[in-house]
Amino acid sequence: MIFNNTISKTIALLISVIILILCIGISIVYGYADTSMETALHAFTQFDHSNEHIIIRNLRVPRALIAASVGASLAITGVLMQTLTKNPLASPGILGINSGAGFAVVFSMVFFKISGLQSFAWIAFLGATIAAIAVLGISSSGRDAMTPIKITLAGAAMSALFSSFTQGLLATNEAELDQVLFWLAGSVQGRKLEILTSVFPYLALGWIAALFISPKMNVLALGDDIAKGLGLNLGFIKVIVGIIVILLAGGSVAVAGPIGFIGIVIPHIARKCVGNDHKWLIPMAALLGSILLLIADVAARYIIMPQEVPVGVMTAFIGTPFFIYIARKGFKKA
Fold first, then answer.
1. Using 50, 70 and 90 to split pLDDT, how confident is the model at 211?
2. Which end of the chain, N or C, is more open, meaning fewer C-beta atoms within 10 Å of its C-beta?
């Protein structure tokens, strides 16, 4: 652990906030169109309808805010899922959220000819919600309701089911493939601020709720038996966690599509910084998740410029080495 007292943890959070602000500035300034920080400031103080000012105001600022919001939401979701399932490799996809959202989008395109990112957002949110509710419902049935292994297995089964349906629809409707492929890879490119504002209340509610239940998550992390012995209502807290995950992960996939690895990697980095206390872990993970997705998005603009790589590909590229390290470390312990 790098920081092990209140003062040092506070300093770590403040440093992360400063880095996040710098990353937002970099995201706004750098890209295919040549701009500067001065140009960015003038876009809001001395707007002259130039191409540079329009790009900054209408494209880059919404893109930076979306990347920061989605990164924070996915990281918080990863923290909650890893604590809930006691699985160090757990992520938002464990509830079938990504696959459920992807299937809903492809289904709506194939059968209802729906297109457009604004329409995709609400359809994806609906699909993610249905998938997560189905997983929670399945895992809560039987004698031992919502045990970590049951949640994990139910999520894996639903993810496989929805992924198979999605691939089947795309295989029989090749005309729809190009339209949805970029969305399925995960991207913040071309997203308008209206898409974020439409789901932002759900994201904000999820952030606040995650902070509010952080003391309960500390108890839950001790194990179900100990938590029950300390008076924690396991069923209630697991349902609340499930709702928060739906709000955050569902809202994120609605805005940016399925973006992987942030929910897996960031919680482990945050734990190295501030330890396992969720009152510190959740805000630190949120900041680091925002920073990582902003950096990945900026990098995605330069790999094959003037074209762009979907940011979901970049997060996979960045996150894969960490994923392998975490997996190997877990196997050694086992």
1. very high
2. C
